[in-house]
Every structure is written in C-alpha cells, then in structure tokens.
Design goal:
CATH superfamily: P-loop containing nucleotide triphosphate hydrolases
Bound molecules: thymidine-5'-diphosphate
Order of helices and strands: EHEHHHEHHHEHHEH
Radius of gyration: 16 Å
Strand order of the largest sheet: 2-3-1-4-5
CATH class: Alpha Beta
Amino acid sequence: MGTKGHFIVFEGIDGSGKTTQIDLLKKHIEENGFICYKTKEPTDGPVGSLLRQCLAGSVQTDEMTLAALFAADRLDHILNNQNGLLKKLDEGISVISDRYILSTYAYQSVRVPLDWVMALNSMAAGKIHPDCHIFIDIDPGTAMKRIAKGRTGNELFENEKRLTETRNKYFDLFRQFKGTENIIIIDGTQNIQKVSDDIWQSVYKYFL
Ligand code: TYD
C-alpha cells in the first residue's frame, strides 16, 4: 500500500468563505503535483440529501433527529465503497472536506447535549483523524451580511443568534481539543488572497 493521502477539513460558521478558500487550496495542492479530492458534509448521499431538505425547511424534524442524521451521513461519507473517505485516502488521494465532525459538535451542541453528540459520532471519530482542521473565523454580523448577498432564503441555522452560539461552541471545543486536534484558526475577515496565503502557510508542509 502506498502513502496515504492527507485529510484537511474546513470549518466555520455559515458565510465564512469556506467554498472559495477550498477551491483555492485544491488548486495549490494540485499545482504541487498531488491529487486532491474535494468533498463536503452534508454529503450528496442519501442521508445528506435528506439533511439538505431539513436545512432548507422542506422537511420538518427535531434537533435530536438531525444530530443522528448528521452522524449517519458522516459514516456513509467515511465508509462508502464508491467514493468514501477511507477509500480515497487509502488510494493516496488527499481530501479536503467542507465540514466534518467539529461542525456537528459545534452546531448540534447548541441544542443537544455534547456528550450524546460525541457518543453518536464515536465510531466515525475512531475511523479517521484529520491532519488539520482549518477554522475560518468571521463574526456572525459579517456572516449574515454575506449570506444575505448570495441567497434568497436562509437555511435553518442561518440567523445571527444561532451563528453566535455556534461560534462560541467552536471556541469552547478548541479549548477542549487543544493538544489532541490540530486546529488552525484563520482570520476570515481579511481579503481573499490573504486568507488563502495564511491557509497555504499552515498546510504546505504536507505537499512538498
Ligand atoms: P454549509 O457548509 O453552510 O453548506 P452550504 O454552503 O451548501 O449551505 O452547511 C450546511 C449547514 O449544515 C450549515 O448550517 C451547518 C450545518 N451542519 C450541521 O449543523 N452539522 C453538521 O455536522 C454539518 C456537517 C453541517
């Protein structure tokens, strides 16, 4: 078996600019001669599609059920034998995921006990350990302005109060996981190029 790919995860509240930065990082990685696969959670798989309907409001559910669905979607993301994370990484392909386990811990623990959310995700947590989590930090006020520009309707968690609570949860988690998870906090209020440069400075060592 050859060398495994690297696994880089992007985190942040809605509107933090992950999509733009993931595309820029993927380009950088490929320019350095590595194969890079871009993926996201919720996934495009069966559970992920249901989750997107819940987030858009076309399917109604409660927050506990949502937490369980996010955990199920993540397991499918990891284990799927067509394009799952384990398969890609084993093939030596580096993977960038738009959201992963810290999204669940931060977003769901606003309403559901963190212990239970962690228990639901314990199987996933034991399967793969990201090389790093890149958290693009912006304040919820700026996030809401950006969301309003790009959209007609807001998803379930896209309101300033929830995003503030979620951002606070992220920072609680960063304290909790200091020393066990490699978390890189990037100032997402800078211009696009500067954010991209800061991210590359943090990860280029994996792609030399
Ligand atoms: P987002 O990255 O904002 O997707 P898009 O840009 O396509 O709308 O993610 C969708 C939402 O799902 C976002 O509000 C965060 C939420 N989410 C959770 O609450 N828990 C999770 O585990 C994940 C992966 C996402």
